[in-house]
Amino acid sequence: MAYRLHRAGMQVVVTELSQPTVIRRAVSLAEAVYEGQAVVEGLRARLVQDAREARRALAAGVVPVLIDPQADITTQLRPRVVVDARMAKRNLGTRLDEADQVIGLGPGFVAGRDVHAVIETARGHHLGRVLLVGEAAPNTGVPGTVGGQSARRVLYAPADGAFHALKRIGDPVAEGDVVAQVDDRPVQALLSGVLRGILHDGLAAHRGMKVGDIDPRGVRDYCFTISDKALAIGGGVLEAILCLLSAGD
Fold first, then answer.
1. What is the 3-state secondary structure (H, E, C) of the chain?
2. What confidence score (pLDDT) does residue 90 get?
3. Residue 174 and residue 16: Cα distance in Å, rounded?
4. Residues 6+ apart with CB under 8 A from 127
5. Which tens digit of pLDDT belongs to each residue from 96-149?
6. Could you give the dihedral angle defined by the CA atoms of residues 103, 109, 112 and 117, in that order, rounded to the nearest 10 degrees?
7. For residue 72, is pLDDT > 70?
8. Which side of the chain, N or C, has fewer Cβ within a 10 Å radius?
9. pLDDT tens, residue by residue, 207-221
10. What integer pLDDT is reported at residue 248 of this predicted model?
11. Cα–Cα distance for residue pair 96/116, rounded to 1 Å
12. Does residue 68 come out as left (phi exceeding 0), alpha (psi in the -120 to 50 range) or beta?
């Protein structure tokens, strides 16, 4: 989403958790939390500490990333648009009065009540559509299909414990390979392909938590470029901003 908005000439500020559990780290600006900076398809992001540093980053054409789970920075930066992209499948407290335009991604929001617009995030015919009334399709709990595979492509933690990756993003994997460990419990691949995403090493995992993603198509380049789904959702957010801006004129 940040990529498409930035490319359209908009200034974007990203707020994050202190320990993001992003799986597709090679294409996520959240990686700046761990590394201090991140680059996704030429888009540069930098970890900053406050509003002053955020403004400096924006002036340099860099996306500032702040550790700010409650997005308190909005009271200082006063953005015209707030996008709740947490994908929590429920509204964690986002309100219509937080900005001129408030946009929610996926299920959990009702357009006109919680937010001004909702973006459909479920794969399929309606992916990326802008809803100005109503809500997105409910969460099915079933991972989207990639390369003909759904649930088998996702890696889950077998128990609670410390996560340790044994392979890196972009590595080829075969069915049965041990890709990671949670304490001393192995996390095995259920199909062959390339490792498209994996949890950051050393984080605490809980049983059933998503910790990795295998792409059965086997194209390594896909691991390091933004997915069709993410681009569609980002396009939906851009459309919603322009649509709401036009309606307000």
1. CHHHHHHCCCCCCEEECCCCCCCCHHHCHHHHHHHCEEEECCEEEEEECCHHHHHHHHHCCCEEEEECCCCCCHHHHCCCEEEECCCCCCCCCCCHHHCCEEEEECCCCCECCCECEEECCCCCCCCCCEECCECCCCCCCCCCCECCECHHHEEECCCCEEEEECCCCCCEECCCCEEEEECCEEEECCCCEEEEEECCCCCEECCCCEEEEEECCCCHHHHHCCCHHHHHHHHHHHHHHHHHHHHHC
2. 87
3. 33
4. 120, 121, 229, 232, 233
5. 999 999 999 999 999 999 999 999 999 999 999 999 999 999 987 777 777 787
6. 30
7. yes
8. C
9. 999 999 999 999 999
10. 66
11. 7
12. beta
Tokens describing residue 34: 């761990």
Which is nearest to 172 in space by CA: 191, 157, 199, 144? 191
Domain ranges (residues) in the chain: 1-78, 80-142+228-249, 151-216
- 150 has pLDDT over 90: no
Residue 177 in tokens: 């390979």
CATH level 2 (architecture), domain 151-216: Beta Barrel (2.40)
Confidence bin at 162 (pLDDT 50/70/90) = very high
Phi, psi of 89 (to 5 degrees): 70, 10
> One-letter amino acid identity for 98?
E
Long-range contacts of 196-199 (CB under 8 A, 24+ apart): 196/24, 196/169, 196/222, 196/223, 197/22, 197/23, 197/24, 197/25, 197/26, 197/169, 197/223, 198/23, 198/25, 198/155, 198/165, 198/167, 198/168, 198/169, 199/21, 199/23, 199/163, 199/165
